[in-house]
């Protein structure tokens, strides 16, 4: 037996209100009863065989709402010209560590700040946290738009040598260097000339592939062995 869509919409409104007010889902059934008591127009009768009023259905409705909101945020991020990440670490009642992720982005002349997700972290080292934070941005192909990172100031987040902030910045620099050379045969030739003049190995500036760690090593290695030729090339072309 089908359920009128208006009934589902009314239930989703109740769940959404509960989430906004931080109410537990085990109160979902009681609030549905309240809706009927005040004669909410679209809630079907208690005698209907399917009512979706238990807390399990409430959790599924909440997941559907949150997924829809998150999808809309990712759509906006794909259109945004720049993205900033704001991170805060939190611990739940079971002492499990999580990262609260907010995004700040510029779209249609407006700066927006939105809650994006709550991510569970198993390891608290910079490499693991960096991977957890950047994974969804890479999956949605917007990681190249990241321009800022804000955190609570802990050393694992903002360490100058191996902190999460440094990891994001370093990878961004590698991608920008590749982009600088990728569409210009003249710049590539200039780099090659300086490499030869300075007796440096003839190494190419390589693209980073997020699914291949070896590509990251090779890209960093080639840049490290080409620092002087790169600096001369930048001075010559910029």
UniProtKB/TrEMBL annotation:
SUPFAM superfamilies: Ribonuclease H-like. It comes from the Eukaryota. This is 6033_t:CDS:1. It comes from Dentiscutata erythropus.
């Amino acid at each position: 037996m089908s359920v009128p869509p208006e009934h589902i919409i009314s239930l989703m409104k109740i769940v959404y209100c509960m989430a906004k007010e931080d109410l537990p889902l085990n109160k979902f059934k009681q609030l549905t009863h309240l809706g009927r008591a005040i004669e909410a127009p679209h809630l079907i009768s208690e005698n209907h065989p399917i009512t979706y009023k238990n807390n399990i259905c409430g959790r599924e409705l909440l997941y559907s709402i949150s997924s829809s909101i998150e999808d809309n945020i990712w759509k906006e991020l794909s259109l945004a010209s720049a993205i900033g990440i704001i991170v805060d670490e939190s611990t739940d009642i079971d002492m499990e560590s999580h990262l609260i992720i907010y995004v700040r982005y510029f779209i249609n002349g407006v700066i927006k700040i939105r809650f994006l997700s709550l991510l569970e972290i198993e390891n608290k080292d910079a490499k693991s946290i960096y991977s957890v934070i950047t994974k969804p941005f890479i999956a949605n192909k917007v990681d190249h738009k990241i321009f800022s990172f804000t955190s609570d100031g802990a050393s694992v987040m903002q360490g100058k040598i191996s902190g999460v902030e440094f990891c994001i910045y370093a990878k961004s620099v590698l991608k920008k260097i590749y982009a600088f050379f990728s569409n210009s045969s003249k710049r590539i030739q200039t780099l090659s000339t300086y490499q030869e003049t300075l007796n440096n190995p003839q190494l190419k500036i390589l693209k980073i592939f997020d699914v291949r760690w070896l590509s990251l090593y090779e890209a960093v290695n080639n840049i490290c062995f080409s620092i002087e030729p790169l600096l001369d090339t930048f001075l010559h072309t910029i």
